[in-house]
Write a structure and sequence with these properties.
single chain, alpha/beta, Rossmann fold, 7 strands
């Protein structure tokens, strides 16, 4: 039997990169898939790819930084599928880089609003439903930047550190019914990373590779493998954990 057979999996930011890979992996494991993302039009092929694996897949337009949109999205999942078994809070942005003294208020608020407050909004409504069911799994997507500093990314680092604390707190509060864990990826070959244009900056790319003892970038599929592990009963005694999938980055 597949590991998520007939489970309903809700994924934010699920039309590209890590989110898309996790959606595909969950679909292959038999889950019903609900994708929440800002716009379907940009990545409509991603939704078609997911539906080709699992016909019981829906798209919900949602900006996770808007409380009412998150509330409506979660309720829509429940109304269509009846349950909410697994949630992956993956939506996030990197933000405009800059030193703290040079960072404007809006840049700070935008990243915190999506990467941290947006996850709080999602968890609040996911947990309301999972408490009713007396079961459920939540996986949050942090980063290696949730455990170490990274110059010129104070907003992103603060948000990702906050996610780990939020995860641990929720794990304690709901340990009798809901497992809550967080993944901390290293540098992953995704569209978000591609915005750095590393292929045209070989020295910068090698500098990043050198920070990973395995001397390579990770893949979205490798993160998805970790997500499936945390989402299914293979990890039934794991809650409040921060799983590093980082090629050894944080071992140094």
């Amino acid at each position: 039997m597949r590991k998520l057979e007939n489970k309903t999996v809700f994924i934010t930011g699920g039309l590209s990169g890590i989110g898309k890979a996790c959606a595909i992996a969950a679909a292959k494991e038999g889950a019903n898939i609900a994708i929440a993302d800002r716009e379907r039009g940009i990545n409509i092929k991603a939704m078609e790819e997911i539906k080709a694996i699992q016909s019981k897949a829906i798209f919900i337009e949602c900006n996770v930084s808007v409380y009412t949109q998150v509330e409506v999205a979660v309720q829509k999942v429940i109304s269509i599928f009846g349950t909410l078994d697994v949630a992956l809070n993956n939506a996030g942005i990197g933000g405009k880089p800059g030193k703290i003294s040079e960072m404007d208020e809006q840049s700070w608020l935008k990243v915190i609003g999506i990467d941290l407050t947006g996850v709080f909004y999602c968890m609040k409504h996911e947990l309301i439903q999972m408490e009713k069911q007396k079961k459920g799994v939540i996986v949050n997507m942090s980063s290696i930047s949730g455990k170490v500093g990274y110059a010129n990314s104070a907003h992103y680092v603060a948000a990702k550190h906050g996610l780990i604390g939020l995860t641990k707190t929720a794990a304690l509060e709901y340990a009798d019914s809901v497992r809550v864990n967080v993944i901390c990826p290293g540098f992953i070959d995704t569209p978000l990373l591609n915005k750095l244009d590393l292929n045209n900056q070989p020295q910068r790319k090698q500098l990043i590779l050198n920070k990973h003892p395995m001397n390579r970038l990770g893949t979205s599929e490798e993160i998805a493998n970790g997500f499936i592990f945390l989402a299914c009963d293979d990890s039934s005694f794991i809650t409040g954990a921060a799983l590093n999938i980082d090629g050894g980055y944080l071992a140094q």
